[in-house]
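Slide 14.
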Amino acid sequence: MDHQLTLGDRLKVRTMIYVASEPIPRFWPMRTFIHHNPLFGLEHLPFEEAVEEAGRLFHGRGYLSRSEYQEYWQAGKVDENALRKYLHVFLEKHAETLPGISMEHWLWSLLTRCQNEQMVPRTDWLDGRILHAVLHGQAPDQDDETQKYRLQDILSHKIALDGPVYANVDRLFGTDIGSTLDDLLVKSCLDFFDEGQSAWQSPGRKQGFFAAWKEVAQHNVRFFLRGLHLRNLLDSEATPEGVVAHILRDLKVPEASWQKYITRQLTRLHGWAGFIRYRSTAKHYYWAEQYPADLTDFLAVRMVLGMALLQEAVRHHACPANAEEIQDFVHADPFSAYLRLELYTGSILPAWAQQVEDVLARRKRSGFDKMAQQYITAKSRWEAARQVKNLQRLAKAMGAAAEAELLAMTPDQLDRFLEIMRAWEKQEGFTWLRSMESHYIKDLVNRIHIPQAPAAAEEKRPFAQALLCIDVRSEPMRRHLEAIGDYQTFGIGGFFGVPISFLEYGRGTEVHLCPAIQTPKNLVLEIPAELELEEEPLYGALEHVLHELKSSVLSPFVAVEAVGLIFSLGLIGKTVAPLTYHHLHHKLHAESR
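Slide 15: predicted structure.
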């Protein structure tokens, strides 16, 4: 149990989880999305860095594609002067080491003419020496020492020590732990965080997310059939923070890396994590008060499931069981590790896929080194050929002078050239964004006309005064209203100082009629004037019975027979006494009309 985890240790784990969850935005409640900022947890960073970090954490794209920005530029929606200004600022910092190369021309053409979404894509082996050789139709020289050094650098980047262990196992052994874990966790969340939609409620929810899930998981036949041994993991510690700490130690994740490790775990399903984070801190949230849960519960459930799936993979694939064993595996046989990464991450050259898969299936190290060296040679040439094709296409669009510059560059100059191109592409989206904003700011300022001060006139009471919301969407209404007559408008808080919630008749959730940043304390109910109050319990009971019949497991079996019996009366009548049946049928329809 928790005999090894003191109160201080538990608080330390909770603090780590709290800090690790800071970048996760809280997009809840979804009905008032207007004021939510997806970069809220990264506001301490400059905007450009925040977008880059958010893209890494949440697997999203912060800017539009290059082709979309080019369409806006051609439509006159981008400030070209601003675009050139930001380009000059960039060149002042980066292009001083490439004399004789018109980097401004290259980068401007990259911005406005390049059709590729990425001119210099990510590569493993490409450098100026290899690019220079392929550019001039030569075979690049092989340097074994440089290759080994570069291989270690590639593996340390792709198999990070602070990365989730199951993710590294997926990359190295082709398992599917990550997606399976996400599916199981999403189903567990749907069961617990149900807000009255399901007919069958998950048991024990008042105990909290982890406690309720722990009770159900120990009797879950689905987990048992999958071979997941959860009981030992759940019995190891009593509290969710104890379980998190216990599993992190079993995985041999360095304690200095715990916070980054936890962040990567939480951001894998950042939508659920954001909802739980909001739910655990919201005031007067009924479902949270009735069925409590926080990110510590969520992380504990995820880590128990992940550990069980990892143990299953170890039994079936003989793969490493913790972070240290993964690092030992990579360092002991880097060529095998690289081939595995290429094959199981889908980065392998198609012509080599079958051959590499066969060698890995035999599990004999004798063929790994030779094949890996041959594959690395082929991969480096393929990366160089792709890069040469991209550069030659761009140079052709720029003109003969650019083609000559490309061919005249030395290997060192090509290295620096690629470095500058990568740096520019990294900040290109932010440059486009600022240039578009500059265009709209100038356009707005140019359309503002300050009228000359009129001659002093006697103060006259306006025909009418109107109070409108200070929201920018109300500004056009104010301007048009003042233009059509003797009206005076004022901008004030649109809720008129009385924040209320409105619950429409027959609806299960209320609407907040106030600014999104406020929580109303007043609730207004809608009740139909013609509805007799004594009828409400009857309607409610009938609705409840109908809902139970629709959602009951037995309804499909009973309803079919019951409805079939009713329709059988008409069938019998048409068969046995058709004249009498049609006579009664027409009579009933006539009376109903």
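Speaker note: The radius of gyration is 33 Å.
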